[in-house]
TrEMBL record:
Sequence similarity: Belongs to the drug/metabolite transporter (DMT) superfamily. Small multidrug resistance (SMR) (TC 2.A.7.1) family.
Segments passing through the bilayer: 20-40, 47-66
Phylogenetic placement of the source organism: Bacteria, Bacillati, Bacillota, Bacilli, Lactobacillales
Protein name (record): Quaternary ammonium compound-resistance protein QacC domain protein
Superkingdom of origin organism: Bacteria
Length: 68
């Protein structure tokens, strides 16, 4: 968690917070889901995987379209 906040602070030095924060929270959300599935054997409905994929596409889209 400390490392995550450290990387967030580092990213804010180079990119606007309006880009950094949504990407950071999206990565955290997807990461939490994957940890639950892999380590805690959470069962995720098939339709939920579609929305997880859309979240990942959104994160990539934000990063690609964000101007440096």
């Amino acid at each position: 968690m400390i490392a995550s906040f450290g990387f967030l602070a580092l990213a804010v030095k180079h990119l606007p917070i309006s880009i950094v924060y949504p990407v950071w929270t999206g990565i955290g959300a997807v990461g939490s889901i994957l940890v639950g599935v892999v380590f805690f054997k959470d069962q995720i409905p098939t339709i939920t995987w579609l929305f997880i994929a859309l979240l990942i596409i959104g994160i990539i889209g934000i990063k690609i379209t964000a101007g440096h």
